[in-house]
Amino acid sequence: MTGLPVDLPSTHTTLICVALPGLAVSLGQGQLTGRGLEGYYRGGRRLLSRCRLRVAGREPLEVQARMAGADRARFVGTLRASSPPGPDPDVVVERVRHADGTERITLHSRASRPLRLPVEVALGTDLADLGAIASGRAGPELPASVHAAGLRWAGRVGSSVITADPPPADALASAGVLRWELELPPGGSTSLELRVRPDGAGPVRAVGRTATGSPAPAAAAGDDARVPAFLRTSLDDLQALLLRDPAHPADLHLAAGAPWRCGLAPAEALAAARMALPLGTRLAAGTLRILARSRLSAPGPSSGMIPGPRRDAGPHLPPGCTGTEATLLFPVLLAEARRWGLSEQETEELLPAAEHCLTWLRTTVGDGTYVPDPHSGGLVRCETQAHAHRAALLGADLLDSCGRPGAAGLRQWAQELRAAFRQDFWADDPGGGRPAAARTPDGRLVPHLGAAAVHLLDTGLLGGGVQAPGLLDKAQTGHLARLLGSPAMDSGWGLRGLGAKEPGYNPFGHRAGAVRVQETAVAVAGLAAAGHEREASSLLRGVLAAADAFGHRLPEMYAGEQRTDGSAPLPHPAACRPAATSAAAAVLLLTTLVGIRPDAPAGTVTLHPVRSAPLGEISLTGLRVAGGPFSARVSRLGLAMVEEAADGLLLRS
Predict the structure, then answer these.
(1) pTM: predicted TM-score of the whole model, two decimal places
(2) Any idea what DSSP says for residue 491?
(3) Which of 158, 441, 524, 603 shows a CA-CA span of 20 to 30 A to 281?
C-alpha cells in the first residue's frame, strides 16, 4: 500500500550529540548497529551508520549510557577477559562519542595479570541524507575500500573516510573491519581513536566551540537545586545549535533543533535570539543581519517581508505564515537588543531593514485596521495582531530614538488597533468571555482557547524599562490570566497548546494540546509583567518539573497530559531535542524572576522581580547589560539587588 504517512522515528530515548554542523545519534547504547537514525552526520548526511566493537571476540555488556554534554555521550561496558574467566568483569570498556566525528575507545584492566586482547571494529555507511533515513528510504550499505589508516566509502552523493589512531594492524575492506592487538598491563589502560569525516575535508569546527562572543557563560544558584543544571544544560544546547552564515562567517544564528531541523527557521531564530538577549547581543545582531539579507526586495505587496514557511495552526485554523511573524519580530528584536546594549553602529546598520519591515506592516494594513493572513482569504489571527501591535509600538520607539520619521503614524495605528481589538476580538460567554483565536472575513469569531493567546501578554519594553501597553484592557488581561491558570490550560507541566475542554483537543497535537515550551515561557513572562504572579508561578514550576524529568534538556514540546502524583511528562515522538526556543526559554524563565528591564542608551536598568519568589532565593551571574557583565539576586522575600554591573550603569527604582 502506498500513500500512507510515515511517522518520524521517536528520538526521546536517543542520545543526540550536537555540535553543528555535526551530529552523532545513538539509540541509547554504545554500539552503532545501523538501525534507524544511528550514526555520525555532517551537514545532514550520514557519514557512518555502523560501528560495532568486539573485544576478545565478544561485544561488551552495556552498563551505562549517558550524555556528558550537548556534544558528547559516554558509554560504559564490561567483559570478562581473563583465562580462566572468573565471576567478575575484569575489563571496563569506555567509549566517548563526539558530534565532531570522533570516538575514543578506552580499555581499562581490572585483572591481576597482563592481558593481550584482540579488538575489532566493524564499520559501514550508506551516505544517506537525514530526510531519506527518517522516511525509511535509506539505501543499502556501500562497499568499503582500504584508505590510509582506515576505510573509505564512495557513492553518488560523496564519500566518507574513517581513520584510526593508532593505525590498525589489519583492515578488511570486504567486511568493513579494522583490527588491533592491544596489551593491557594489570590495572592499566589503553585507548584508540576513530575519526570520521567527508573525504578530503578537515575536522568539524563546531561553531559554538570556536565563536568568539557566543552566548555568555551565565550561571544560576539559589534555593532550588534544579535551577543551576537547567540553565547550564540550556546554555550548552544553545551553543551546540549555533550556525554561521556561510557567506558571512562572523554572523551567527541558531538552528531550530536537532535532529529534524538543523537549519534556519526565521521566526524561531528571532524568537530564540530575543529570549537570549540577557546573554549578550551578538546572537541577535547576527540573526538580524542574516535575515535582513533574506528580505524580499522586489516591488509588490510582499516587498520588505522576511520569507518563511507555513506552520500548522491546529484543528480550527488553516496553517499560518511564519514569514509574517518573522517580519513583525525583526523590528522588535532590534529595538530590544538596543535596550540591552547593541551598539549604535550596529543599530544604524540594521535600521533600514527594520524600516522596510514596518513599511510592509503599514502597506499590508492599508486603510484597514487588522493585519490579515496572507494565505487564508482575509482571516485575521489573534496572535498576528499581537505581533503587529508590539512591532508598531517598539518600532515607533526605535524610530524616535534614532531620529527617523514615521513613529507618529505607527503609534496612531496601534491606538486604533487597540480600540478595535478590545471590541471585535472578545468572545462573550457565560464564564466572562475570552479572546478569540481569529476573526473570519465576514466578522465571525473563532472562539477556541489556545496558547496563541499568550502573545497578547507579550507587549515588549519601551525606553526607560516601561512595559508597552497591550491589546487587552486590564479586566480582559485579568480574565485571560485566570483562563491560562485554569486546569484546562495549565497541565501541571506547562501550558497546553489548546484547552483540554476544546473540540479537537489532543494532548499530542502540535498546536492542539501539546505543551510548547516557548509559549509557556512567554506566558510566564507576560503574566508576571502584568502582575498575575500566581498563574505565572504555577506554569514556571510546571515547566521546571518537566525539565527535571527530561534531564534538564527540554524538548521543543511534549504531551499535554495532566500531571498527577508520581507521573512524568510524556515525550512527543516528533519533538526536536535539543531545540533553540526551548533552550532559550530557560533564559527567559529565570531572568523573569529577576525582572531585568534595561535601557542601555540611557545608562539605566530597572528590576521588577516576581515578589512571591516562587523558587526561593535565586542568583544569576554572567549576564550582559550595556556591554558589561551583570549579576543580580532575588531574596526569599522577593527583594532584588544588583551585584555586578557595567561602569556607569544606574539602577532605577
Answers:
(1) 0.94
(2) -
(3) 524
